[in-house]
Each structure stands twice: as structure tokens, then as C-alpha cells.
């Protein structure tokens, strides 16, 4: 819970620097994103969860809040194979957005928080003179649980 409050405080500072406030609706949205941060929720899913805590909030408010948080690079909009826009908090301690592992069998999404592309970025700079500011990477494949299940079925 301490981590969550620290994160909210940091987000409040970013909003203040942009001339905006951490309103109760924005706080509720951020709290829900933090609470379910590994779930990669859509705006509608977030709205449903926020509404449990803040019954008066509207879907349009959630969309506006997500747009603002995305613009301020507090949240990233990600889209996986289902084409649905989902929202993912950026970690303040990382220079780049984290990577994802997407299982093509069960649809599970896992996060990788290590920056695996440092050498690639250096090569892009050296070879093309292009300075990478950010990147997104999703690995598509089969998760460990599905791989085990496949091996088990092949043996049986």
C-alpha cells in the first residue's frame, strides 16, 4: 500500500507540473490501474471496476483521464492480438516502457521489466544515427504452462 501511495504522489506531481490536479476521478482511475496493473485492462473494464468504488463516475471521464495520463506518459496504451486498446502504467524507475510476452494459445500476457534492448539501441544509433527515445516490444509465442500441457498431451 505504501508503494501505491508513493506512485500516486508521483503521478500527482506530474499532473501538477502539467498545470492539472489529481482530482478524485483521476485518483480513482490511477488507484484501479495500480490495483490491477498486471491485468492490462481496457477502458470499459477499468470503468466497471472504478464504478464499484466511485459510483458517480462516467465512462467519458474515464476515457478523458486515460487520454490525459497517456499524453503525460504516465500510462501506455497497448494493443494485443484482440485489437482492444488496453492501459498499462509506466514504471517511474524505468527509462523505457516494459516488454510483454503474449501466449498465442491461452492469451496470457506477462511483463518483462528488464530493458533487453540496450545493445540494439546502441546499434541503431551507431548504424543509422537515430536516437531511440522509447520502444515497445511484444514477444508472441507459447507460455510455460501451455508448453507443459502440450508436452504432457504428446506423451499421453
Fill in the keyword field for this structure.
alpha+beta, 3-stranded antiparallel beta sheet, 3-stranded mixed beta sheet, 6 strands
Concise account of the structure shown:
48% of the residues lie in helices and 16% in strands.
Describe the structure.
By secondary structure, the protein is of the alpha+beta class. The chain folds into 2 domains: about 1-90, Arc Repressor Mutant, subunit A, CATH 1.10.10.10; about 95-155, 2-Layer Sandwich (Dna Ligase, domain 1). The chain has 6 helices and 6 strands; from the N terminus they run ααβααββββαβα. α1 crosses α2 and α2 (about 25-35) packs across α3 (about 45-55). The strands form 2 sheets. A 3-stranded antiparallel β-sheet has the order 1-3-2. Belongs to the Fur family.
Shape summary: flat
Architecture per CATH nomenclature, i.e. the level-2 architecture of the largest domain: Orthogonal Bundle
User: Residue-averaged pLDDT, rounded?
Assistant: 86
Tally of extended strands? 6
Radius of gyration: 18 Å
Strand content: 15-25%
Biggest sheet, strands in spatial order? 1-3-2
- Going by CATH, what is the homologous superfamily of the largest domain? Winged helix-like DNA-binding domain superfamily/Winged helix DNA-binding domain
Give the CATH level 1 class of the largest domain: Mainly Alpha
Q: How much helicity do the residues have?
A: 40-55%
Number of helices: 6
- H and E string: HHEHHEEEEHEH
Unreliable segments of 5+ consecutive residues: none
Largest sheet: 3 strands, antiparallel
Amino acid at each position: 500500500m505504501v508503494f501505491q501511495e508513493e506512485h500516486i504522489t508521483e503521478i500527482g506531481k506530474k499532473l501538477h507540473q502539467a498545470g492539472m490536479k489529481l482530482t478524485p476521478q483521476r485518483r480513482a482511475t490511477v488507484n484501479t490501474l495500480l490495483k490491477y496493473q498486471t491485468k492490462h485492462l481496457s477502458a470499459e473494464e477499468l470503468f466497471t471496476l472504478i464504478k464499484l468504488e466511485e459510483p458517480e463516475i462516467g465512462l467519458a471521464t474515464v476515457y478523458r483521464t486515460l487520454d490525459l495520463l497517456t499524453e503525460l506518459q504516465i500510462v501506455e496504451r497497448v494493443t494485443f492480438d484482440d485489437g482492444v486498446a488496453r492501459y498499462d502504467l509506466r514504471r517511474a524507475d524505468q527509462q523505457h516502457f516494459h516488454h510483454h510476452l503474449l501466449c498465442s494459445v491461452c492469451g496470457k500476457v506477462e511483463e518483462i521489466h528488464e530493458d533487453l534492448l540496450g545493445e540494439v539501441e546502441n546499434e541503431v544509433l551507431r548504424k543509422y544515427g537515430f536516437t531511440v527515445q522509447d520502444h515497445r516490444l511484444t514477444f508472441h509465442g507459447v507460455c510455460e504452462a501451455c508448453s507443459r500441457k502440450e508436452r504432457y498431451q504428446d506423451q499421453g
